Amino acid sequence: MTEPTVAEATDRIYASLQADNVDLDIHIATLKAAMAREGVKEAVFDPAKLAQGNRSGRKLMQAYFRQRGVKVGFSKE
Q1: Residue pLDDT, tens place only, 43-67
Q2: 16: Cβ–Cβ under 8 A, 6 or more apart, which residues?
Q3: Looking at residues 15-30, what average pLDDT do you find?
Q4: Numbers of helices and strands, H then E, in the chain
Q5: CA 22 to chain CA centroid, nearest Å
Q6: CA gap 33, 28 in Å, rounded
Q7: How far is it, in rounded angstroms, from Cα 32 to Cα 27?
């Protein structure tokens, strides 16, 4: 089985967020490993795909991911 790419890990996180955060920590760890393999410094998410894409939701997400060692950015709308 091949290791997931950053894009695949990001898609799994979107799905987890829509499913009330099921296995979110596992998907964050997968994303962190994929970022290390690909040399990516920041994970970029689309606010429109988030359950709470408003400012407070984005800040909460950034804080949660930062605690797990992943820097999060957001694409322009």
Answers
A1: 999 999 998 899 999 999 999 999 9
A2: 22, 23, 24, 27
A3: 95
A4: 3, 2
A5: 13
A6: 9
A7: 9
Alpha-carbon dihedral sign for residues 72, 44, 10, 16? positive
Task: Kindly state the tokens that stand for 16.
Answer: 């987890």
What is the radius of gyration, based on Cα positions, of the chain?
12
Q: How far apart are CA 31 and CA 12, in angstroms?
A: 9
Q: How many CB atoms lie within 10 A of CB 65?
A: 19
Torsion sign over Cα 39, 42, 47, 52? positive
Element (H, E) at 16: helix 6-18
Instruction: Of 71, 8, 75, 13, give the one whose Cα is nearest residue 43.
Output: 71
